Amino acid sequence: MSNSVGSTARLIGAGLRALLVLTVITGILYPLAVTGVAQALFSDKANGSEIKVDGKVVGSELIGQTYNLPKKNPDDAEEAARPDLKWFQPRPSNGLGSNSVNTQYTLILSGATNRSGDNADLIQWVTDTKQAVIADNKARGYQPKPSDVPADAVTSSGSGLDPHISPEYAQLQVHRVAEKNNLDVAQVEKLVEEHTEGRTLGFMGEPTVNVLKLNIALKELTEK
Q1: Other residues' Cβ atoms within 10 Å of the Cβ of residue 184
Q2: Which of 19, 20, 117, 148 is the most core-located residue (most Cβ within 10 A)?
Q3: CA distance 70 to 17
Q4: Taking residues 155-165, what's their average pLDDT?
Q5: Which has the higher per-residue pLDDT, 99 or 197?
Q6: Quick check: 164 pLDDT over 90?
Q7: Which of 96, 100, 91, 99 is closest to 65 using CA atoms?
Q8: 2: burial class by Cβ within 10 Å (0-12, 13-18, 19+)?
Q9: Can you tell me the distance from the alpha carbon of 204 to that of 210, in angstroms, rounded to the nearest whole number?
Q10: Phi, psi dihedral angles at 207 (to 5 degrees)
């Protein structure tokens, strides 16, 4: 009996020592090592790819955000968001369109509707959004045509959080942004060109424009 108790005690002791050692290695040392390497070599990405203006964090280059007018009634949760048209607008998660489960770039929620391309509701949402895009982007001497509206202007991304738009969608907004900010169209077109990012490694994906970075540059231009 005593041998059996002793063997059990030794096994329990060995198990506890293994638990302690593995806890220290995998629960303390390994996370500290990974965090240290990340902070030393990739501090920007490890901290969320933050974008700062005048030392203040204004967003992340990985997460989209809205550019809306203040609500007429801040206490009305049902009041629809209205885009502030002096800024470049992101994909339809900004409340312009309904074809997302994430209607305000809410970080706690990410995902698409997963509705099929022939779904009646989705078709109606896209149709309504296209009409809104055309109406919102009218400017003096410029009238967008339905064929000018790219797919990303009327559909949300798979995550509902994409911070990028296509150069085509950015170009569609140029005349409106120029008019609202009393700028020359050529100045705004240059901003879009300067903030267009090419394909990854030159062949993967499509060219994109980060809306936050573009709007920061626009703000700097309007303050000159």
Answers
A1: 9
A2: 148
A3: 59
A4: 87
A5: 197
A6: yes
A7: 91
A8: exposed
A9: 17
A10: -60, 145
Q: Write out the DSSP string of 89-145.
A: --SGGGTT---SS-TT--TT--------TT-HHHHHHHHHHHHHHHHHT-BTTB---
Helical H segments across the chain, by residue range = 2-24, 30-41, 43-46, 120-136, 167-180, 185-194, 211-222
Strand partners, 59: 51
For residues 54 and 177, what is the distance between their CA atoms, to the nearest angstrom?
Answer: 24
Q: Which residues contact 210 (CB under 8 A, 6 or more apart)?
A: 61, 163, 164, 195, 197
Buried b (16+ CB within 10 A) or exposed e, 136-162: bbebeeeebeeeebbebbbbbbebbbb
Listed in sequence order, the residues at least 6 apart from 31 whose beta carbon sits closer than 8 Å to its beta carbon are none
Identify the residue whose tokens are 């470049």.
Answer: 88
Contact 152, 165 (CB under 8 A): yes
What pTM value is reported for the model? 0.80
Q: What angle do CA 191, 192, 198 make, to 5 degrees?
A: 125
Question: Given the structure tokens 């949760």, which residue do they identify?
Answer: 77
**Kind plus residue range of the DSSP H or E element containing 60:** strand 56-60
Q: How far apart are CA 96 and CA 80, in angstroms?
A: 9
- Residue reference for tokens 């920061």: 216
3-class SS of residue 165: strand
Give me the residue spans of the domains in the chain: 2-46, 50-222
